Amino acid sequence: MAEEEDSWQHGVRLVLHLDSILEGDPYIDEIGFVHPSQLESLHSIGNFALEHKKPFFMKTRRKAEGQGEADDTGQYAEDCSQRNEGHEVEAEPPGINPDQSYLNNVQGKFIDFSYDKSAFWCAHHKLAIAVSALAPIYEVARKEFLANRKAHAQCLTGTRNSVMSPSSLSFQLLEGGLCNRSANSRANGNGNVQFQGQNGAVHALLQKNLMLYSRVLVIVNCDFASAWNARKRVLSRMEATEEFLLAELRLARMVLAYGPKSEESWAYRRWIIDRMISAGLPWNTVGSVLEGDSMLVEAIAGRSRMNYRAWRHRYWLVSRMSLQQVASELQNTKRLAQLHVADNCCFHYRRCLLLGILQAGLMPNEKNVNSPTLVASRAQAGLSAALIVNPQLLTTLWKDELSWNRDLIKQFFGFEALWLHRRFLIWGFGHNSKIFKSASLPVVLNNNGSTTPLSEGGGIFSKSSSHC
Amino acid sequence: MGSELYLDKHVDYIKSLDKKSDFDSVVMEHLRMNGAYWGLTALDIMGRLGDMKVDEIVPWILMCQDECGGFGGNHQHDPHILYTLSAVQILALFDRLDAVDADKIANYIAGLQNEDGSFSGDGWGEIDTRFSYCAICCLSLLKRLDRIDLEKACNFVANCKNFDGGFGCVPGGESHAGQIFCCVGALAIGGALHHVDRDLLGWWLAERQVKAGGLNGRPEKLPDVCYSWWVLASLVMMDRMHWIDKKSLEQFILDCQDPEAGGISDRPDDAVDVFHTFFGIAGLSLLGYPGLQAIDPAYALPVTVVDRIFYGQKK
Prior knowledge:
The complex is a heterodimer of chains A (468) and B (315).
Chain A: H1 7-24, E1 30-34, H2 36-44, E2 57-59, E3 89-91, E4 120-123, E5 126-130, H3 131-156, E6 163-164, H4 168-176, E7 185-187, E8 193-195, H5 199-220, H6 225-237, H7 242-258, H8 263-278, H9 283-303, H10 308-318, H11 323-339, H12 344-362, H13 383-389, H14 392-411, H15 416-431, H16 433-436, E9 443-446, E10 451-453, E11 465-466
Parallel strand pairs in A: 1-5
Antiparallel strand pairs in A: 2-3, 4-5, 6-8, 7-8, 9-10, 9-11
Chain B: H1 7-16, H2 23-26, H3 32-45, H4 54-63, H5 81-93, H6 102-110, H7 129-141, H8 150-159, H9 177-189, H10 198-206, H11 226-237, H12 246-255, E1 264-265, E2 272-273, H13 274-286, H14 303-311
Antiparallel strand pairs in B: 1-2
InterPro entries (chain B): PGGT1B-like, Prenyltrans, Ptb1, Terpenoid_cyclase/PrenylTrfase
Cofactor (chain B): Zn(2+)
Catalytic activity (chain B): geranylgeranyl diphosphate + L-cysteinyl-[protein] = S-geranylgeranyl-L-cysteinyl-[protein] + diphosphate
């Protein structure tokens, strides 16, 4: 069993198994790190039913030894450092990740080979890895990644007939036929594999290795930026097919399932989406990716409250959305905001959407460079045209938001997020008199009994006024 | 919990960190440069930097430099502006800025500035006001602020100001105390603090103090020791530190110590780490806690180090 191998060989075997599992089921959407005993119980359960609308792996907050269970207050904790949140989780029965629509028409491949059941469990597109397997996997993946990256870089600078001084893993891969074998490779007397013939064959092998190890690395350490960068480098050099880029998005999603605050993973999604846009992928595809990402943030924000990184990603999406999408986002997030009145992130997102629509109303034909709103090429149809025809539309939107906010405050008095939102709405009126010029605006009551429409410079802090 | 600072325990805790080989520590290797900055600066504020071996640390830092001039988080890791700042800060601590080619670093950073004045973190393009702070702070320490378009850089930061006076990571980004520190720090060093509405932002920052005395980073969040730095340093730079209750904040930080093993955690009874240890110590220093060196709120380095660079005596 495992004790017989030395630890390097053990790690090598685990890396190979992990890679095979990932190749075997390209639609894995959740990964969790579990205690070995939990893995045992997963294997012993017969048929799963995907019943619960919970995420598969519930994370618990890391505590030092001997301290109690995480309480609810952990939900609102800030992740200020870049550390992982820790690997102890409970293995709950499998839940449904809300954004699984792409699975409806997809047949996941069967995992029909045997893998180390003391280290992995995989079913229903969920993957569990035993915490004890992480260190050996990481050690091997890291070393192989760095070695292959170096060799790949040398290969690119045109070193011909490069003798790859391999670790045992790459050698095993060749022997096991698990990668593209160069027809001209052979082992020479002292165990080094020497590639002759075209550099292209070496390049292909190294590139494949890079993608293999970097994938394992980011799964085990999602903030290992150099691994994500290596993938970007490879992707930059190849033709960006839709299938390939979507697969990369699935990888990032997998990682975000257990590391929802991983800045590197979110940044990777943005890079991939921008690559899709610059590669000229059909707008339908991009649009549905944007929508999917928005839903992903919502799902993740549901269990990782006020996650700054996740929400930051969501309002980055707004800058790439069409006006129709922005308007429907505004509609769709209303219910969410009502459920989480303490969640400033959610209200801030609505502010971004409102500002986006405002921006379109102010400058319907202008390209947006600095503002976090709408890319010009998208700001064409729909709402923009409607705004020109009916400027009251924006005022109505704004006033609706204001009165909805008032109702929430009455119901949930004392939540800072609600008051902050109200300040924004009133500020918005004050700073955009061009759009909001109308006699039916909220007014400010002055000390002398007269009223001033809010759009006319009545400052929120001005001494001569009080709120209506 | 008590009301004393367990200084020796914290020193021992920081010195013990390098020897850890458990998985959770190993998996932090990509940000070791940051960790080194946090640990070493904390030691310097506690007056114990001399316990560390500068002759081992400086060569390691240099090994982390990429040929493009930027520094990675560790040996063989890709360069990034975050680690470049930490590397320069550590060298400043040891008065070893002479060990690097300042022009090369300045060129790297200048190359990361975009048309709109913002800075990318690395060649892959992510923009964040944190990177603006890294650029301005680092170049200032190297006395090469003229290598970038400083006015544009500050204007970009100013564009990230929100209706509540706070700053986010990009224009329109949610106000967040960490981002606010970076923006206020960048504007302070860049000589453009007039963009900050001190009363409005001061109010938002003062609202971060919760009943128990700690500071949070955004509305409705739990207090966290690291905000003792982000919020407090911002208030100091804006001359509004008197807007919070210093005594209860001090007590909150002291309550976050681990009296046995040393180190400080994000809130009482949680596990400690070097990040929160540094920011807790730094926060106490800003509050004037006795026995600690003064820390500069903009550069996040001991005042003696900053003075040495700008008014300095040669070694």
